[in-house]
Amino acid sequence: MSHGQATEIAAGGAAVDVGDATTRYLLYGLLPGWFVPGLADWAMHRRTRIEETAGTKESLIHSLMMAEVGLPIALTLRYEVNPLLLAVQLGGAAVHEATALWDVRTAVRSDREVKPVEQHIHSFLESLPFAALASLMCLHSDQVKSLLRGGREDRDAWRLVPRRRPLSPGYLAGVAAAIGACVLLPYGEELLRCRRAARTRKRRAGAERAPRRARKGR
To answer: Which one-letter DSSP state was computed for residue 110?
Structure first.
């Protein structure tokens, strides 16, 4: 099947640029939509009082997962997709999946109740990176082939190349604001809440041990 035939089938007979449509879907659909389950997951952590169960450890795992997803996104918004960037994206997706398993195991072992709704939210958070990566690989199939060949005959394969058509400053500012409001603030609040709860438990434990030490010293 030729590229033209595939385009015609995808458009239902209308002449459209499938690559442009897919890019717009990634930029204005999938990426903004990512913030919704992220906020919902934070709300579930708060509802199940993470600070009293898994505490700081699980909250730090959440921060790690944000970084594993955030770095490939940031690089993709600023640089051309090439074998190096695809390798980073693939590695980030694989590590994120492994960390997600660690996260759930930590929550369950801490006796924090992971409700069915939260499990369903996790399914979105785990599948979205693969959906985004699959779309990018379809858009840049030539770079996928270059990656499979080890980047041979491509002098820019293993270095970051700034976008030839940079995204608008307004769009980048909007994404940065959304990340701050929907990721950094809520998950920063979660970590702070867990740290405060840990310090409170430590003070209480110290206060309980003090009378026992006093009695032993008599």
So the answer is: T
Q: Give the pLDDT band (50/70/90) at residue 215.
A: low
Q: Looking up tokens 């990018």, which residue turns up? A: 136
Whole-angstrom distance, CA of residue 111 vs CA of residue 103: 13
Q: 105, 45, 35, 46: which is closest to 70 by C-alpha?
A: 35
Q: Which residues pair with 79 in a beta bridge?
A: 162
Largest CA distance in the chain: 92
Our separate counts of H helices and E strands in the chain read 9, 0
SS (H, E, C) 169-189: HHHHHHHHHHHHHHHHHHHHH
3-state DSSP assignment of residue 118: helix
Question: For position 206, what pLDDT does the model report?
Answer: 75
pLDDT in tens, 55-110: 999 999 999 999 999 999 999 999 999 999 999 999 999 999 999 999 999 998 99
